[in-house]
Amino acid sequence: MSETDDYTNQCVKTEHEKLVEIGEYIDSGKEGDIYNVKSKQSVVKIYKPDRRSKEIKQKLQVMVSNPPEDPTLKKRGFR
Fold first, then answer.
1. How far apart (Å, rounded) are the C-alpha atoms in residues 1 and 58?
2. CA 18, CA 11: separation in Å to the nearest integer?
3. Would you tell me how many other CB atoms lie within 10 Å of the CB of residue 22?
4. Among residues 23, 20, 18, 19, which one has the least CA distance to residue 6?
5. Which of 1, 13, 23, 62 could form a Cys-Cys staple with 38, CB 3.0–4.6 A?
6. Does the predicted TM-score (pTM) go above 0.90?
7. For residue 27, what are the β-bridge partners?
8. Would you state the pLDDT for residue 34?
């Protein structure tokens, strides 16, 4: 992550026009950077500009529509 790519404490808008407030930086990889989401127990991945494509968007839509089974959810009732 370079200093110009730091999204910490910024708000980003999702595809569905929902504002998400970015928390602290966690890690980065080939495709993008991972941050905590403030006020939620979740994370967000900000894709690098050169990795944003129609194919990545389609891949993510398929993954969200077909989530894997979550044993914690079944056992404890939460993730």
1. 25
2. 10
3. 20
4. 23
5. 23
6. no
7. 34
8. 95
d(CA 49, CA 75): 39
Under DSSP, is residue 54 helix (H, G, I), strand (E, B) or coil?
A: helix
Neighbours of 38 (CB within 10 A): 13
What is the token pair recorded at 6? 């730091």
Kindly report, residue by residue over 30-76, the tens digit of the pLDDT.
999 999 999 888 899 999 999 999 999 999 899 989 988 888 877 77
Q: How many residues does the chain have?
A: 79
Are residues 45 and 25 in contact, defined by beta-carbon separation less than 8 angstroms?
no
Quote the radius of gyration of the chain (alpha carbons, Å).
Answer: 14
Tell me how far apart the alpha carbons of residues 30 and 51 are, in angstroms, rounded to a whole number: 9
Assess contact for 37 and 45: CB atoms under 8 A.
no
